[in-house]
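User: Can you write out an input/output pair for a complex, sequences first and structure second?

Assistant: Here is one pair. Inputs:
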Amino acid sequence: MKLLVCFILFYTQVSFATSLPIIAEFFNSPKIKRAIINPSGDEILIKIRHKNNYLLMLYQLKTKQQNVLFYEPKQAGDDNEVFDNILNVTWVSDTEILALLLLDDGSYEDHLMTFSHNSDGTLSIKRKKLSFSGHLVRPSRYYDRKLIVTQRNRHNGADVYYVDIDSEKRSDRLNEDLRQASRWLMDINDEIKVAWGVVENEHIVWYRETNEEDWAIVRKSKNTKETFIPILITDKSQTILVLHNHNRDEIALQEFDLINKKFGKVIFEKKGIDIKSISLNSNYSALASANYLENGVLKNHYFNDAAELKNNTLKDVFPNQHAIVVSSNSARTQQTVLTLNHENRGKYFHLDKRNNKTMLIGSNNPTYDVSSNKSRIIHHKIPTSDGFEIESYLTLPNNVINPPLIVMPHGGPIGVQDTIYFDPHSQLLASRGYATLKVNYRGSSGYGKKFMFAGQKQWGLNIENDINNALNNIIKLDLIDQSRICIFGSSYGGYSALMSVIKYPKKFKCAISFAGVTDIPLMFAQDTRMKVDAYKQAMIDIVGDPIKDSEYQRHNSPVYRYKELLTPLLLVHGTDDPIVTSEHSERLSLLLTKKKIEHEFLLLNGVGHGFGSGHSATIFYNKVFSFLEKYLSKKQAL
Amino acid sequence: MRVFLIFSIFIVSFFSQSETYEKLPKLKNNQGYFVVSYSGNYPPYHLSIVSNDTIFKSQEDLSDFKLKKGYRVIVLDEGEYMYSRLKLAKHAGYYKLASRELLFTVTAGKVNYAGDLQFEYHHYNESVSSKVVNHISKTYLWLQENHPKLMDKRKIIYSGLGVDNFMNFYFNQ
């Protein structure tokens, strides 16, 4: 076991300079998924990948002693996927860890692991399966040995309980007779006052002032375009704070009066930008920050000076990084911090706040020499003729003048947003000398609902126009070689790649579609998901009705316009894709083969809608690199 | 007459294992070929197809599957059917398959395909989940390879959930 521990330490902390980065390392499951400090602040629990599983390791800050607390290898999936059987883990005390473990049959169990350090450096561990099962929300504010736990019920909701760690006894349901709600808000006394959930496609919010009262419905909405998320019960009587976009474009934080059912003071809003999330203070009783993406960068608006000061300290300690406090000890002097940026997939640090000293716990980055492969990102915005603004991010490889460009439309197309943060595709391509362009075309999230829903029924139309306009502007910057441009995307991005070469054949030297939609009508006949009314309606909203809009759907389907697909094509699809079935690529390939239109087609056995492992990503990218080499290697006359 | 017709539905089924490519029987005027395409984590022991007639249901029991995935071409009278139940071992019970979503039609004179029946047996609660996924292109290629004469004479059509006219488009190109 000691050997194993040593191996892990070096495996996670040492970077090896290699001539070419290893493809799999960009796509493998993160090496470290969690690092949390104990209440005393002298020991860190690290969830770390080992082979195809994760283990729990304890790291003592003073002695640097490492011990494996839990490791139960499980069989990986078809695609050499990592099987993560540790769903959640948290410190209960300095010697106790609560872990939610996933079993082989898909069920889960809560286990309490009690440990003590022996004088010879080993660990004594007792593991007890607890007689309750449920997801830990957080410990009670008032009782050290009580946990707040939720458990799914047969009413499509979740029940809430207190669980006593020592007796393992569960309280009565805190939600009492309200079984259909799935989310809950507690007041400062840990009493549930607000609940919300979806019942028969209707979003419902319930409220009660005291535990003696019946639950009353304060809001009902069938509008799937709206966001309404209760955040915090305020000091004001019968008032909560909600993140919402009801009767407004952007998601903002605003007061909501539960009795009069009216919105009150806007607490925080940002023009043209949706607020993504709200952070609360350490005991969940007050606002800490509103979090949003601006120019692709995560930003925080702090609600008090102390929180802002803490953030400024983090900025000083981790310059050019987005730093997130993952855990703190009880005294708030010791923390674990996760840092991110466009080249950093995630590094965990221990931060001693008394002297701002840091220690790297581990890195999720590929083990190649970042300094020689450094990339830079250029943020760009262009207006559209119909009043929108399209944001794009150009990643440029280091030391390559006028590199070839890969345009990479994101999937979705509705409700997805690209950012400047680490993208394995962009970084891998940059390491091979390719620039990439990511465009938040209309339909992307984060810019208000008008912009997001403007992408509906714009497949092959304004979405691709937005991408093309963004590309035209990037070309004007003269940073890339406009004679060597390829377009590559996954899912909707794969569709977009195919439609873009149909619409703008002279612009692209090649196109790559991974898991791409090729036939819009097929989406209504590809599998039995269409029997679910809500799913079918969501699909109709996005691509139109299969009967009423059949002409639009056929005209904007690559399959029915295959004769225009004369740009070199690479089609790749996973055989087990449950979202866009491989039939999409198979039928396009069938047609192209019949008409002797040159293309390449790769079916990846056992692969789903994305890469479940670095293994399948390696097969894919080996093919992609040889394809790109073939069509983008030489500078060509325009 | 209706009763007579219903009872006289003689569903000629010719079980063609995917690994043995025997001759298919000729169709009567009111009959079509139906491609049974299946995959699961066990070979099926019995797979039943029933007509969707509300009163008089005819049932076709398919058996002797050797593989976890494969094809069979059978002959059915024209009409509406559904996959109804599945048995995975001789002494095991039948699992009811998800009713109407496994509905399909058989058109006389055509090679009918209604999607791949995909099922999974779950050990932890001894249940079976199932879905149907349209892989008509792959099925067409299998038929071309294993029943080329059939494909020379007859068209494959999609007859499952939703409308998919792709093969018609393909044949017209």
